[in-house]
Write the structure tokens for this entry.
Amino acid sequence: EAGVAQSPRYKIIEKRQSVAFWCNPISGHATLYWYQQILGQGPKLLIQFQNNGVVDDSQLPKDRFSAERLKGVDSTLKIQPAKLEDSAVYLCASSLETGKYFGPGTRLTVT
Amino acid sequence: GIQVEQSPPDLILQEGANSTLRCNFSDSVNNLQWFHQNPWGQLINLFYIPSGTKQNGRLSATTVATERYSLLYISSSQTTDSGVYFCAVGVTGGGNKLTFGTGTQLKVEL
């Protein structure tokens, strides 16, 4: 069974630029999550989708972050404009019922 | 929101040693998972264990939900066990949202 796929794996941008990350969940997993993991901390949920609907985006900084999952399968997370404090690993995860499965993450560095 | 505390924050073991990692949480949970984040950043699901005891090879976990803690046991540790171990919990009505602890950084040396 293929795991959660993410791209790119690494991205370096300057502050105020925009960036987009892509995630393809495990086939058949209806629930998709985006997490932000700052160095030295545990992952923090940004947004949760159930199929193509948003279940929880309470911790998403909506003035600069947006995410979509138009066809209920893959998803994109965008940051525009980026700030220095956005430097982190962005993890995508999917789940069917109980256990969550994480992708390899995208390491973003904002300079 | 729910608070999740893990101990110890850092641990260094000699290969072959055993260890116990602890996760305390501040409220009733309906979901608890243990993850291992390897040195390359990949998060791997170890156990889904909101209550009871499970074992998988050299790893086992026990959650005592009524006392709001969970333990992860690592026996005969190997260098490949190095990384960060996270406990993550979910609460009723939380819509499958997991709140992660701060992790235990484990280093296994030869």
